[in-house]
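Illustration 12: ABC transporter permease.
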Amino acid sequence: MRRLPRTRSLKMSHEVANSTSDGADNKVRFRATGFNPKANPVAAWASFVVVIALWQLGSSTGFISELAMPSPVAVAQALWQLIVSGDLWRHLAASLQRLVGGWVMGTVAGLIVGFMVGMFTWARSPGVALVSALFPIPKIALLPLFIIWFGIGEPSKFATIAFGVFFPTVINTFGGVDNVQRNLIRMGQSFDMPMWSVIRKIILPGALPTILSGFRISSSIAIILLIAAEMIGAQYGIGALILAAGNLYQTDQLIAGVVVLSLLGLCVSWLLGRLDRWLLGWR
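Figure caption equivalent — predicted structure in token form:
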């Protein structure tokens, strides 16, 4: 074998040593950070401040009509009057009672049906067919029918909210159960785990993220149906407050009612977020 000249071999050794030292100094950046977005509370609150400031600026300069859209100051004054007079608490208590009752009834029924459709062959085909046929129907269109069946009182409002919550809960529960890895279920069955243990330790944890995502959708639908039901026939409730204020052209109270709805939605979202962190802390 032919040997390299001594000078050339020393030069190559020097180049390799330099490249190694340069590589030690210039490390390759670690790129595999994953997809893990972080919440920024400061940016969230800053967005509200910017919107309110622009709204107040438009009202102060006359760009936004006070009749069509009262200023934030006027809305805050109307909201304070509702709080001091106690009217807000009467309306809010009635709405919360209907919202919680209807959402719980629709959610419990949806979870039961969703698990049955996702796990049992005899329930899958009829369940999917009925859900596919009834889910596209606007639930508010059935409110007059519920009033005929249950009367103008509270049962018709509970039925409207529960019916609207039922279908998205069934769909998300069925989808979550159906997406659980089948090899995990077979592994549990191969170890002679009882059916209840398979459901509790394998199927439920695997389907829980999708189910909780469905809760966010169903809670928003419940608030929409609540307001619609209260506008049709209710003496107390946020929807009744908004309807009465609109009929009297009291736009400041109308916007105050909308603000209360927005705060209610934020509170529901916060509670569901806490539930999510509590139940899915293992992730």
